Amino acid sequence: MKRRPDASGRKSEVPMFENVVLGRRCSDKKFKEEAPVLRMKLFEAQRRCLKKNIPLLITVAGVDGAGRGAVINLLSEWMDNKHVHNHVFWMETDDERERPRDWRYWLRFPEAGSVGVFFGGWYGAAMRLFCTGEMSEMEFDSRMHHYRGLEESLAASGMAMAKIWLHLDKKEHAERLRKRLEHRQVRHFTPYDKKASENYEALASAASRAITLTDRSFAPWIIVDAADAHYRDLAVARAVIAAVERAEAEQEARNARPKEEPSTRENVISTLDAIDLSVRADPATYKKELEDLQDELRELTYQAWKKGISSTIVFEGWDAAGKGGCIRRLMAGIDARISRAIPIGVPTDEELAHHYLWRFWRHIPRAGFVTVYDRSWYGRVLVERVEGLTAQEDWSRAYAEINLFEEQLTADGNVLVKFWLHMSPDEQLRRFKEREETPWKQYKITPDDWRNRERWPDYVRAADEMFLRTSTNYAPWHIIAAEDKKAARLAVLRTCRDALKNALKNAEGKKKKHRPEK
Q1: Phi and psi torsions of 250, nearest 5°
Q2: Secondary structure of residue 60 in the 3-state scheme
Q3: Contact (CB, 8 A) for 375 and 326
């Protein structure tokens, strides 16, 4: 492939836009004829989304001066704007800077039936940095592969996606840029980046690469000739309508597939069988050990707070395994001003209207803070799988989605610690009966607990696959023997202590490595 240098000195690929037919026009007469028809079709498509609970995400990107703002205004005018929410990502807030990169997008994803319009989306910043030489080709490609995986997950969850690139040729772009700068105080709302805006070929090359890497059938790019406003507006409306129709067809296909019956096989050989449940804490030294560990944690979490190292701690395990007791002892060793525990139960209507990971992204801690999840996103591959609440294709896909989510957390410096509290069925039965017989513990036992106990082999099998497919180098599982509650508490605190020590050590090592020589 022919290559040419851009302003950063790299050689860039010839943009795909050289093969795009530009200069198309739509007369006033034709626009007046077609616009009302397309407007009604767009409105009807939106109404179907609302009726069928389909979230619609529209990404409007393109070269400066192509009319991105005008297109977003048009969508708000042609659609029912009560259900349309526009989002720009020009300036990072403090909250956004102190969390993983995707956090700002997840919080703004449209709920079922509503429309989210992203100005540039996650592509804008990456393209700008790449075309100005501030992001390497390897990092850019990595970002694009990540976004492709994210979009695949969103599409599989039922979201309709329209990705629109508004394009101009070099001459038209230069002329519009000149006019925009002349009227900057009046018209130019977008923050002006001279290096990116005036480097047309580098930006077009970055866009070409991004589109090539992320153009897929579930989220295709639509390249729109934006030189003529009438032609541009009609093309955008058609693209959004087509995105809704794709999502509707996929929804119908999913509904037509036969549902899987949950398995009830009894014979299960599990890695959990290898866990030594005979571990006991020494009653004579337990209290002192616990207090010492809590003191260590208090100091370590303070040091992590000063360095902006956040922690996410996940608790899963059997009912009555002692998760609540472990969490209370752990939280007692962390300053309450920088920590919080999030109990995860049945999702609310608002949470059900979003991707299942949305409610967990909401609580991701900012830099230096600690979030403890009592149950977590693993419910997707545990209770939802075993109880048949989620189709097999959905929970099977969740392993990759969870790994992608956790990779985002740890890549951003978040200390992620995942616990499974394990005990024997006999010990669980003893604790269930104790709860029933103790007045102040009776609230802890429910009919669901007894029903879940009957599915023990199915939960063992689900947990085994969960360990196999989501225990990674960056987010390993820690299986804690919880037959003795006190031993489990000490093991949990030791594991958290060691993870924080390691994170602080790595942070210091990176600091020394990048320290300039005197």
Answers
A1: -70, -40
A2: strand
A3: no
HSE value, Cβ hemisphere, 13 Å, CA-based, for 31:
13
For the segment 10-27, what is each residue's pLDDT rounded down to a tens digit?
A: 444 445 666 665 678 899
Q: Is the pLDDT of residue 250 over 80?
A: yes
Grouping H, G, I as helix, E, B as strand and the rest as coil, residue 62 is strand
CA geometry: angle at 83 spanning 81 and 86, to 5°?
A: 70
- Which two tokens mark 301? 């979490």
The sign one gets for the Cα dihedral 503, 508, 510, 513 is negative
0.85 exceeded by pTM:
yes
In this prediction, residue 377 carries a pLDDT of: 98
Helices (H), 317-424: 323-331, 349-352, 358-361, 383-386, 392-411
- How many residues in total does the chain contain? 518
CB 490 within 8 A of CB 289: yes
Task: Give the β-pairing of 3-5 and 11-13.
Answer: antiparallel
Q: What is the pLDDT of residues 358-375, one digit of tens each?
A: 999 999 999 999 999 999
Q: Which amino acid is at 301?
A: T
Instruction: Give me the percent of the chain exceeding a pLDDT of 90.
Output: 75
**Alpha helices (H) along 257-380:** 286-307, 323-331, 349-352, 358-361
SS3 416: strand
Supply the angle between the helices 456-470 and 392-411 in degrees, to the nearest 10: 40
Quick one: DSSP state of residue 13?
A: E
CA angle 444, 445, 451 (to 5 degrees): 140
